Model the fold of this input.
Amino acid sequence: MTEALQFQVVELFHSLQGEGRLSGVPSMFVRLAGCNLRCVWCDTAYARDPAAGQAMALDAIVAQVCAFPTRFVVLTGGEPMTVAGVAELAGALRQAGRHVTIETNATRLPEGIACDLASLSPKLAHAAPVDGAEAHRIQPQMLAAWVDGYDYQLKFVVTQPGDVAEIQRVLAAVGRSVPPEQVLLMPEGRSAGTLRTRDAWLVDVCKQTGFRYCRRLHVDLFGARRGV
Done:
């Protein structure tokens, strides 16, 4: 039975969505433990270990999510699509009347998972460990499966103007007609000051390409803290 499923939950909290099309919308965040990548600038490295956090039953997660006055819930990590039983959790949240966003690096197939907004965040070369590992971080066929099956946004963390050429190569490899306004460029940084130093060139890049500028609202409001 689904209620017997257990998940390692690193964080479960009520806040404002800080990134993407639903930025500013009050949402519940369920951060699951475990990730298949090791991005050098990761701001949730504490969620990488599959044993991180505390065990929670599926029904307990759904009950806690539903105790707050919002219909929006975000499954995040780590990488939630690597978590056993995540499809059952997403389905239960959908059955409870919740709008489900899945934050994923898109290195796993969706396989019909309940998802109202697929927030796809492929990791560019600057995210790779120094040893050059993780060449699998970009999976065009898996990205295409998400794009074909779901309402989506493609969210890229950028560190310099040159990242745009790599983004364009990724989009070409996906082989789908992706509207530029569904491609979000988000400056990398853990402080409002760092983010603002990248704004000048990033705004120009967005104006030139038609890609959407993606603010990190939670960093501006709360700083680099957990549970916000």
In short: The CA atoms of residues 171 and 178 lie 8 Å apart. The radius of gyration is 17 Å. The mean pLDDT is 91.
